Amino acid sequence: MVHVLVHMALLGGRETSDTIARMLNTNPVVVRRMMGLLKARGIVHSEGGRGGGWTLQRPLAELTVLDVQDALDQGPILAPGLSNDQPVCPVERAANTALTAAFGVGEDVIRTEFAKLTLADIAQSAVEGH
What is an example of a GO molecular function annotated in this UniProt entry (predicted)? Predict the structure, then answer.
């Protein structure tokens, strides 16, 4: 959805669910569901009827990748694939503890980086061809 929001800003700011669905090669129903989550966080607004569509509610410079991530998914960005086949096994418990700790550190790093990265940064990179 970061891709979509940056495109919306660069293309004038208003897109329909059908146009976004074609951009993402998915169904407009999926787009409406995802855009609804963004709308609930004040990132986009929708207008129905002829000439309607989705518009950005905030400038790209005020939107971070973390804003979009958190609007779409309240869970962790990283999810360790823990084994729970043998919960009494000390090796399994030790592996799960170590992996959970490492994924927690990684989660903190990713969230910090996502919070620093604005959609305006991404748009600027696209315009400059990076």
Answer: DNA-binding transcription factor activity
